Each structure stands twice: as structure tokens, then as C-alpha cells.
């Protein structure tokens, strides 16, 4: 079992690349440091993606998330970094990162960043009666 954080994101082959489906991952214990004060910031990170050929391996994702614990980062920058690294690792058809940061100075911050493969057309939304 790994006892160290890691920036390596592992992937595995999508078991059904012919079908569009959404993978939702919720990370309730994300932490990084405020780059101004050095105090900890806490967030819930929601990752929603439609895989193409690869899926993100969850243990590697856990170690990757852990790697931010001692890094200073503005909320906007760390959310964008998460998106860039995950897109680089698995090249999804679509990915959205929603980072819901806990209160800092009486202000809650939510940052949303998205990637959309221009070659992919999302399926039509189905509305049930």
C-alpha cells in the first residue's frame, strides 16, 4: 500500500467505449494551502466525465488528490490544474470539475472548469413524462 502522495494518474481501458456514459466521482476531503496565509483550504471536488478510450484508476486518483495537501494554490488555479491533468491522463469526451471550497473569510467559493472534445457530439437529453 502506498504511503506517499503522487502526481501520477493511472488509467485503464474503458470497458465499453462504444457507449456514452457518465462517471461521477466525489472527493469530499480535498485539501491544499492558501498561497497567501499558508492555512489549509478544504473542498469537495466533484469529477463528472464521459470516458473515451480510458478511465481514471481510483487509487491513483486518491494519491494524486493527496499530493495537493502541502501545496499553496488559489482555488481557480488548482481547479484548472485538476482538469488539465485529468484530461491529459485519460482524454475524455467530456469532463467537468466542480470544486466547492469551504468558507474562507466569510466567503464560499465554487469553481467549475470543463473540457469538451470537439469531435464528440453529446447525446440528446431525454425528458421523461
Describe the structure in your own words.
This protein has 129 residues and is of the alpha+beta class. The protein has helices spanning 58-66, 75-90; strands at 11-13, 23-33, 40-50, 54-56, 94-104, 107-116. The strands form 2 sheets. The protein has a 4-stranded antiparallel sheet with strand order 2-3-5-6, with helices on one face. Strands 1-4 form a two-stranded antiparallel sheet. It is globular.
Write a concise keyword list for the protein shown above.
129 residues, two-stranded antiparallel ribbon, 38% strand
What's the quick description here?
The protein has 129 residues and is an alpha+beta fold. It is built from two helices and six strands, in the order ββββααββ. The protein has helices at residues 58-66, 75-90; strands at 11-13, 23-33, 40-50, 54-56, 94-104, 107-116.
Helix and strand layout, with pairings?
Blueprint: E1 11-13, E2 23-33, E3 40-50, E4 54-56, H1 58-66, H2 75-90, E5 94-104, E6 107-116
Antiparallel strand pairs: 1-4, 2-3, 3-5, 5-6
Amino acid at each position: 500500500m502506498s504511503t506517499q502522495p503522487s502526481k501520477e494518474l493511472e488509467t485503464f481501458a474503458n470497458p465499453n467505449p462504444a457507449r456514452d456514459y457518465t462517471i461521477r466521482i466525489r472527493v469530499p476531503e480535498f485539501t491544499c494551502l492558501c498561497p497567501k496565509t499558508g492555512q489549509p483550504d478544504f473542498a469537495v471536488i466533484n469529477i463528472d466525465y464521459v470516458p473515451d478510450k480510458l478511465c481514471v484508476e481510483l487509487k491513483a486518483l486518491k494519491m494524486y488528490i493527496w499530493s495537493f495537501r502541502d501545496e499553496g494554490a488559489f482555488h481557480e488555479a488548482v481547479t484548472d490544474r485538476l482538469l488539465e491533468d485529468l484530461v491529459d491522463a485519460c482524454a475524455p469526451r467530456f469532463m467537468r470539475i466542480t470544486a466547492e471550497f469551504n468558507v474562507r473569510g466569510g466567503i464560499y467559493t465554487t469553481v467549475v472548469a470543463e473540457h469538451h472534445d470537439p469531435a464528440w457530439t453529446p447525446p440528446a437529453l431525454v425528458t421523461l413524462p
